Amino acid sequence: MDPLPALPQTVGSFLAARAPTHKASSLSLRLVAIGQAHRLAGHHFDTGHPAIRETMKGIRRTHGTAPAKKDAAVADVIRDAVAALVKRPGLRALRDRALLLVGFAAALRRSELVALDMADLAFVAEGLVITLRRAKTDQEGRGTEIAIPFGHGARTCPVLALRAWLEAAGIEAGAVFHSVSRHGALGPARLSDRDVARVVKAAVAAAGYDPTTFAGHSLRSGFITTAAREGVAERHIQNQSRHKSLPVLRGYIRRGSLFVDNAAGRVGL
User: Which residues are part of the catalytic machinery?
Assistant: First the structure.
């Protein structure tokens, strides 16, 4: 029996059966894939059919749609992670320290961080200027410059940490962040975005935090959260994070400012 075209009631039952183990967003993606499979086979498929629409509404009401948020690696977390890394010898600790500090200070996405080449770096009197050749919000590839000033302390200065890594590894061209073997030898491979998550998790674990609550994106969200808590103006945060969508940025800022001038703290409880 040919499974296509599928009855809307069948698809609705399929979605309902998977609701206890799948997020609503995942089920929506599966629904899109089912519709695409029908179109490729030359069939019309109405994803807005009541049997499907009402099923998805019920799933969202019952199981919710809020995404699971990973913790932001705020400045205190970064400082603790760096303190743990400086106790370790070898190239890997130097690389991980530089990766954490640069990723945090520049509010970089994982893909942007691992895509950095030496040609993208300019060490200047005030610190470091990074040129992103093509960012998520720069699909035309015009490039974006991000400035990182020298830090207040030598241990947590992103500029000094990056210099220390590059000099120790002898990197003069090509990728900035390379793999390092377990024996401490510099590898030829560029790190992947998944490697960023591994570095973040390992570093926060060494500092005593639960690594399962952090991810590669925690560096970027940590910068925004910390800046919001410190009262940095929205436009200055946006200048560093390069968010095109203000509602998305304001979501981070609101979470970072939940306890800043909180009304509940002023009612005398």
Answer: 109, 136, 217, 220, 243, 252
